[in-house]
Every structure is written in structure tokens, then in C-alpha cells.
Amino acid sequence: MDNPGLQAGYSAVLRDFRLEFSRGGAYTGIVLILLGMGLDSALYPDMQSAFTSARVLVSVLIFIVVLAMRTRWAQDRIQGLTFVWLILPQIMIAWMIAVTEGATSIYYVGMTLAIYSSGIVLAFGLWQNMVFGAISCLVRGRLRLARGRCRLAGHVCRQLPVPHHVGQHQRRVYLF
For the whole model, what pTM was predicted? Predict the structure, then answer.
């Protein structure tokens, strides 16, 4: 049974459902990202300025995506825009992992939670979840490689100008 009216109605309902879930998820993400500043201040007080800047920047970018979702153009591209705002915290978390303890960093849990929630909470299909997980792993892997190269080329990195009032964790940010 090919009923164009039924298909159009289903598509509209599905689009609205994805839009509402994406907006709700984005607002929740913004709140969780900003609440993470408490974790930053407790675990990495010398990195708090850099981490706060990253958290505020990512939150603002996600909010811009949410505002864009109100346009007609964006409503036909909800899944793509959802993917964009989901990957922003992944990039931030991967960077935070890279400049702290690496795989032993508590931020690793945040990255895993984001991958998990994209599959459970959001209306993504199998391929979208697989691509999101793969991109998250690639981002983290890319940052690990950059960090490893910096360590391998430590003598070069030590030549970079870093103000000497900057703490050890902040030096990693400058070197990164």
C-alpha cells in the first residue's frame, strides 16, 4: 500500500519527534557540560580556566545549533544537526582527556556516556550510531597521536615559549 498522504504524515511526525528529542538532548547536554566545571575545579584546579573556556564555547555552539533548528531549512536536517551538536562535546572531552591523564582520566567516562546516550536516548539508527561512535574514537585517537608526537618530540616541545607562571597541566595545553 503506497499512500503518499500517509507517508508524508509519518515523515512529519517523525521529524517533529526527532526535533523535540534533539532539542531536549541539546539543552540537557548544555547543562551537563556546564555542571562539569565543578568536576574541573575539584580535580584539575590549575586547568580550570582552559576547561571553563572550552565548556562555555561548546555550550554556546550547541545553543547556536538549537537556535538554528527553529528555521525551516534546519527542520529538514534535524539528524545532521543533532549529529553536529553531539560531536562538539566529544571533541571537547577528547581534548580534556588528552591534556590530563589520558585513558585513566575521569573524563573518559563522559565520552563513553555520550556514545551510550546517543544510542539509547536519541532517535538514531544503527548506522548513525556506528558512525558517531567511530568518529568519537577517531577524534580521541587523533588527539592521542598528537599528544604522543609531542612526547616523542619532547626536546622540540620544550623549546616552545610557555610563560613560567603557568602550571604543569597548563603547559600541556600550550604544548598541545
Answer: 0.72
